[in-house]
Each structure stands twice: as C-alpha cells, then as structure tokens.
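Appendix C: a fully annotated inverse folding record. The material below is reproduced so that readers can follow the format used throughout the book. The structure is listed first as tokens, followed by the designed sequence.
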C-alpha cells in the first residue's frame, strides 16, 4: 500500500504542483488549503506523513503541528514544514513544536523527495522506499544493487553506504568528519582521510564509462552529491 501524504498548502499553484509530483512518485495525496481543514482530514483518516506550510489561513502550520502531536492518533505522524522563513530561530521553533524536518522555499522537488524518504525511513521504516533514484543512478537497498543507466555498478559495502547517504541529502555538503560519523559510525575510529580513499573508489566505479561525476568536492569543506548535475 502506498504511503498517504496530507499536503497542507494555501497556494493553489504550489499545492497542485506538489500533488502532481508526489503522485508521480507513487504517493497517495490528500489536499488541505487551511489549518482547520488539515486537522479535520487528519482526524478522519490518519496520514502517513504531513507536508505543511507554516503560514496558513484559520490555523497556522505551527499550531496544526502542535495539535496533531497532542492527539494520540496522530502523535507519531511524521511532519515536514514548508516555509519561506529561513531564520535559525524559526527553524528551531518549528522543530520544537513537533515538525520532523524543515524545508525552506523555494525548494527543488528532488530535495523534497529526498527529505520525505529520509523522514519515512527514520520514523516509519516500513513505508520507506527501498529504491532511490537521481538522474541515471539507481540504488536498490533491498537488493544491495546500484545501476547507472544500463550498467551495473559494483561497490563495496562502505562505498554503497556512502553513495546511499549522499543521495539521501542531495546538494548538501558534508565534511569528512560528518561522513565518518554517518557512514562508519561515531564509535569507529578511522582517519578522516579515509573518506577521500572511499570517495575515490566510488567515483571510479560510478564514472567508469566516462559519465559526468555527480560527486562534488568542495575545497576545505567536504563532499556533496549534486543531483542537478547528473
């Protein structure tokens, strides 16, 4: 059964765009145009995830999050907040109120889908998509398989986890230390330069047919997976 997403957005154009793209990705979508309608719909049929705008008519997105968290039936429903308010204090307030993630407008659909998958995987792993795609690269976690175009890509377990993690956060730059904690584990001691070795192996495997390199090196900062460039 496909995950059901409640989209709470009062801008008709964005609401329609979200519905079209989410349904294309295989999600079921219910739309609400204000906070009161969102609360009513969530009470009638508990969604698997709520995608909610901060600024809403009647009841604000922050208040909707607070009320959903206070209800037993919806207390554990994952919520991602969409907002034009990008200040740190606003992000902290949104997360403290109950949102699981925070996406600042304008955003790309690819980034949003990655955030949705990451939240579902963390909070409701049974609903998470086992196949992740970006451009011509496909990672199948269930089969532990990677393809680029028509070619199978053979990766070691560390390179597989590294690619999977980077693809979960497209465009975001991670330092070597952050990648070590996420991929190797915080309790494992290896030198930071080890990341460079494994990134080199991953690049060699992904780009063996002279394809464009999707992994971007950011000098003095780390690495990022650039989905736009794939």
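Designed amino acids, in order:
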């Amino acid at each position: 059964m496909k995950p059901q997403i409640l989209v709470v957005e009062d801008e008709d154009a964005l609401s329609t765009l979200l519905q079209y793209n989410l349904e294309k990705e295989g999600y079921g979508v219910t739309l609400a145009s204000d906070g009161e309608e969102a609360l009513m719909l969530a009470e009638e049929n508990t969604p698997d995830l709520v995608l909610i705008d901060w600024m809403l008519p009647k009841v604000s997105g922050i208040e909707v999050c607070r009320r959903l968290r206070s209800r037993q039936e919806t207390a554990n429903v994952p919520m991602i907040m969409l907002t034009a308010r990008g200040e740190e204090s606003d992000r902290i307030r949104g997360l403290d109120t109950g949102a699981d993630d925070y996406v600042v407008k304008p955003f790309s659909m690819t980034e949003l889908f990655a955030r949705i998958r990451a939240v579902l995987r963390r909070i409701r792993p049974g609903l998470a998509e086992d196949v992740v795609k970006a451009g011509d690269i496909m990672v199948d976690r269930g089969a532990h398989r990677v393809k680029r175009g028509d070619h199978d890509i053979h990766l070691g377990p560390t390179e597989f986890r590294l690619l999977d993690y980077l693809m979960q956060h497209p465009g975001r730059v991670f330092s070597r230390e952050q990648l070590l904690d996420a991929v190797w584990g915080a309790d494992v001691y290896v030198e930071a330069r080890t990341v460079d070795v494994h990134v080199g192996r991953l690049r060699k495997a992904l780009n063996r047919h002279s394809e464009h390199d999707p992994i971007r090196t950011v000098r003095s900062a780390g690495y990022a997976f650039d989905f736009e460039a794939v």
